[in-house]
Amino acid sequence: MNKNIAPFIAVIILFIVIAVVIINWFNYRLKKRIIDSGPIDADAISFLKRLSDMGLEQLKWGAVLFSGGLGLVILNYLPYDSDSPLPYGLEIMFIAAGFLAYYFIVRKAEKK
């Protein structure tokens, strides 16, 4: 790996981790304030349910990024010409597989 890109990747990962922690902390505070405010009506319950579904959004991007990275790793071991459309097609197929995996996981969770 290039020595100049490693600090850049570390900063991006650190930024993402900090953003996820802040988002989860504010969601927790919001849910706690709604619950502590008193009786909860149907609108508040549906709002809290949407807030708790935020984990599915993280699952989606985790599946897409994992499958995209897996596609790049496999491309590293495949021989292809520089003008070949193989890397683009293979990477798109892996990203689509990540979205499909997410879709089937969510669909299975909704049936329960």
Number of DSSP E strands = 0
What composes the largest sheet? none
Structural class: mainly alpha
What is the residue-averaged pLDDT? 83
Backbone CA Rg: 20 Å
Number of domains: 2
Can you tell me the residue ranges where pLDDT is under 50 for at least 5 consecutive residues? Answer: none
**SSE topology string:** HHHH
Query: How far is it from the N-terminal to the C-terminal residue, by CA?
Result: 44 Å
Into which percentage range does the β-strand content fall? under 5%
Helix content: over 70%
Structure overview:
- With 112 residues, the chain is mostly helical.
- The chain folds into two domains: 1-52; 53-112, no CATH class.
- The protein contains four helices and no strands.
- Helix 3 packs antiparallel against helix 4.
- The longest helix is centred in the first third of the chain and has 31 residues, at 6-36.
- It is elongated and about 65 Å long.
- The model has no long low-confidence stretch (mean pLDDT 83).
